[in-house]
Amino acid sequence: MAASVNKIMGPLEWLLLVALAVIWSGAFFFNKIALHELPPFTVVLGRVVIAAMALHLFMVMTGRRVSYSPKLWGWFLVMGALNNVIPFSLIVWGQTQIASSLASILNATTPLWTVLLAHVFTRDERLAFNRLCGVILGLVGVVIIIGPDTIKGIGSNAAAQTAVVGGALFYALAGIWGKRFRDISPYATASGQLTCSALLMIPIALIVDRPWNLPLPDMKSWVSIIMLALLCTAIAYVIYFRILSTAGATNLLLVTFLMPIGALLLGVFILGERPEPRHFAGMAVIGLGLASIDDRLKRRMVNRWRKSSPGPAQSLQTQSEQGFGKSGLEEREAVQ
């Protein structure tokens, strides 16, 4: 039986979540560069094929293997469609029509869908008031960081925006479906689902994009595809399935709240950009939301309330102990 979900994440889970956020925060950037030279389905195909090849090579070199169970590979096929083929295609196409900042905000609805869907489809991640409030706070924090002006773009290019939100919805479904891989190595799960993603994408890209008719892309596009494949897909999905196995789908997909922070940190340390006051305000709101979802804040408040407001039995016991005080000691001394 799979291990139970660790709803309160430990330091390792938080560290991996932040690392995943930093890695994935660059995906929108690399997508935008690749799309200057290549059509959407070809970008997705290159990303999953190279990532799958890299992971299989790693598996061979380290002596790891994936089970040949037809049932397991059926699960991988569904996971590849839910987690890669459909959302990658929807989001990459959406980015051809709308700004990356707006796409980031729409993608940040993933935890909201996850909280709602996990309540319906799972037993160990039920909807709680603190989780719903935390998700809303996180979404507000993302909007603050990226800039409230970005919301003005909502309403135009409805099809592209719907596509990105649809991608977020499929990410949520994938997180829930992926719970069945808890007892399987993250390396095996990542390589399995990416292999199935590549098999699904090959006919789509060949029929729609006809890549043999495309001009040879420039070096920037090649570098972007390789970075998308190796960093944002192969390495990222090993981390993804490691977190999912212990922290659960809702906690895992909080990464979409942290991605704008990751992009901000990359801008500060690599590009020398200066953060604005709204960036710090947004990070504070996201932090409050994450604390609420993680359950630590709620448990500390409940424990403090219990200590400050003891129940009738505890209060009676306390009064009895206090009443025993000096007279009780005197009685015991007299008996002795």
- The computed structural class is mainly alpha
Q: Sum up the overall morphology in one term.
A: globular
Helix content: over 70%
Distance N terminus to C terminus? 59 Å
Major beta sheet summary: none
- The secondary-structure element order is HHHHHHHHHHHHHHH
Amount of beta strand: under 5%
**Stretches where pLDDT falls below 50 for ≥5 residues?**
1-6, 315-336
Mean pLDDT: 80
| Rg over CA atoms | 25 Å
Instruction: Please provide the count of β strands.
Output: 0
- The number of helices is 15
Structure summary:
With 336 residues, the chain is mostly helical. The chain has helices at residues 11-25, 27-34, 40-61, 70-95, 100-107, 110-121, 129-146, 158-177, 186-208, 219-247, 249-252, 255-269, 277-293, 296-308, 312-335. Residues 1-6 and 315-336 have low confidence and may be disordered.
Describe the protein in words:
This protein is an all-alpha fold. It is 76% helix and 0% strand. It has helices at residues 11-25, 27-34, 40-61, 70-95, 100-107, 110-121, 129-146, 158-177, 186-208, 219-247, 249-252, 255-269, 277-293, 296-308, 312-335. Helix 1 crosses helix 12 and helix 3 runs antiparallel to helix 9. The protein is globular.
Q: What labels describe this entry?
A:
336 residues, mainly alpha, 76% helix
Helix and strand layout, with pairings?
Layout: H1 11-25, H2 27-34, H3 40-61, H4 70-95, H5 100-107, H6 110-121, H7 129-146, H8 158-177, H9 186-208, H10 219-247, H11 249-252, H12 255-269, H13 277-293, H14 296-308, H15 312-335
